[in-house]
Amino acid sequence: MSESHSDAGRSGRGILSRRGLFFGAGAALVAAAGGLLYRHLSSTSSVKVESFMTPASGRKKRILVVTGSGRAQGNSDLLAEAFTKGAREAGHTVDIFPAGRDPMRACMHCEGCWSTGRPCVMEDSFERFHPLLEKADMLVFCSPLYWYSVSGHIKCVMDRLYPYSQKKKPYDIPVKEAMLLICGESLFLRSFAGAAESYRQMLGFKGWKDRGRLFVTGVHEYGAMKGHKALASAEEMGRCA
Ligand SMILES: Cc1cc2nc3c(=O)[nH]c(=O)nc-3n(C[C@H](O)[C@H](O)[C@H](O)COP(=O)(O)O)c2cc1C
Prior knowledge:
The protein has 241 residues and is α/β, with parallel strands linked by helices. It folds into 2 domains: 3-44; 62-239, 3-Layer(aba) Sandwich (Rossmann fold), CATH 3.40.50.360. The chain contains 7 helices and 5 strands; from the N terminus they run ααβαβαβαβαβα. The protein has helices at residues 3-10, 12-44, 75-89, 126-133, 152-159, 193-206, 230-239, and strands spanning 62-67, 93-98, 138-144, 177-183, 209-216. A 5-stranded parallel beta sheet has the order 2-1-3-4-5, sandwiched between helices. β4 (177-183), α6 and β5 form a beta-alpha-beta unit. The radius of gyration is 26 Å and the shape is elongated. It binds flavin mononucleotide.
């Protein structure tokens, strides 16, 4: 290696230009990653309506909306209210069962279903719930996101469908369709994946048609749903139920 070549290689300018290249590439990478992160956040922090609305059959339905929060007029309650408004305006009959404020226990798997002539042996709010269930064409679960799933109140309602899921049931419920409306603090739609998947599997098992899902990210404080654009989506889902 000649002296001049070696000097040029070690010169300040040579080192600076290599450093410059290195930092330039680093800055470009950071900018690209920032752009990706921004796009990811902005696509997940807005209201997401993951639903398909099959054309309304025109048939007026009896819809049972099950709410799952202990907070009266909380975020999920407001979604349920908007849904109900749309559904009633479209001529459907809507019952609301507030499972968060009239909670039922989880299924005990005692296999006592129907043994007393009633669907379940337990004496709790299920007794107020099942007469509504037994005349509903459509079930709408409206829940806050709790630990990446529906709230425990909604889960208990799902569990208590057990009497209608046995081979030896005297009769089944008339429900043929369902919807899922959930809101949570998380900015990420993936946080709702567990709830969505168990809902999907449940519908597959029951043979119910999925009529729509609404996931609302980024709402936490009491009142955060007031005036939220998700309410228009929920109302539209009710109208198209
Ligand atoms: C016990 C509990 C668990 C929660 N878990 C989650 C969660 O896993 N992910 C999330 O995004 N938000 C979670 N949250 C926040 C609620 O989903 C959020 O505050 C929601 O808007 C409450 O709705 P509500 O006003 O209808 O009760 C949780 C809240 C509570 C009280």
